[in-house]
Amino acid sequence: MLNIVLFGPPGSGKGTQAKFLEQKYQTPQISTGDLFRYNLKNETDLGKKVRAYMDKGSLVPDEITTQMLSDELDKGKSPNGYIFDGYPRTTSQAVALDKILAEKFNEEVTVTVALVVDDEVLVQRLLERGKTSGRSDDVNEEVIRHRITEYYTKTAKVAKHYKAQGKWVEINGVGDIDEITEKLIAVINEAMIKED
Ligand code: ADP
């Protein structure tokens, strides 16, 4: 199995790249943001619990997020693995993901690829996306900046977890979408060779 973690701040292009990788490797994308939005839209109990966090641009508590991810993986094992988009976002989630993959599938994260993009580019991309995405958290600059702050205060330190495992690679997330996809594929292919 190939278990890719796509890492990076909001607006760095994780979702865009996940779609290409999903096709290329036949590994479903698991986006915790999309799962939360599905629950918001359908007004589930989970949706009601997380709305206030998401509206503010704050991270949802780890326990709720990890439970949702674990439930999603219980829906049926993907034979080729997964692309994790937006999870883990805290060190506790990274530890949980290792444990979940080991316990459910006897597997581990193959590699974590971090998309690096300058903050002001992120803000501009998200405001632009907000014009068409229908996402309320993309419209308000204050919420966008709060999401980026959450990234630097809570998420960026997850790098340490993967660096310690030799599973951290950074790539420049600014440039042609196709070129970024090519760089991602090169990193993933190399990690697959190393794993064998
Ligand atoms: P973006 O990367 O553009 O911020 P996402 O769609 O990944 O967007 O996430 C949207 C929101 O969903 C986040 O601001 C946060 O409230 C919540 N969320 C998503 N994934 C996680 C996670 N792993 N841990 C905590 N909260 C999360």
From TrEMBL:
CDD domains: ADK. GO terms for cellular component: cytoplasm. AMP binds at residues 32, 37, 58-60, 86-89, 93, 135, 147. SUPFAM superfamilies: P-loop containing nucleoside triphosphate hydrolases. It catalyses: AMP + ATP = 2 ADP. Keywords: ATP-binding, Cytoplasm, Kinase, Nucleotide biosynthesis, Nucleotide-binding, Transferase. PROSITE patterns: ADENYLATE_KINASE. ATP binds at residues 11-16, 129, 175. Residues 31-60 are annotated as: NMP. One of its GO terms (biological process) is AMP salvage. GO terms for molecular function: AMP kinase activity; ATP binding. Coiled coil: none annotated. Its EC number is 2.7.4.3. Pathway: Purine metabolism; AMP biosynthesis via salvage pathway; AMP from ADP: step 1/1. The keyword Transferase applies. Consists of three domains, a large central CORE domain and two small peripheral domains, NMPbind and LID, which undergo movements during catalysis. The LID domain closes over the site of phosphoryl transfer upon ATP binding. Assembling and dissambling the active center during each catalytic cycle provides an effective means to prevent ATP hydrolysis. Catalyzes the reversible transfer of the terminal phosphate group between ATP and AMP. Plays an important role in cellular energy homeostasis and in adenine nucleotide metabolism. HAMAP family: Adenylate_kinase_Adk. Monomer. Belongs to the adenylate kinase family. This is Adenylate kinase. It comes from Weeksella virosa (strain ATCC 43766 / DSM 16922 / JCM 21250 / CCUG 30538 / CDC 9751 / IAM 14551 / NBRC 16016 / NCTC 11634 / CL345/78).
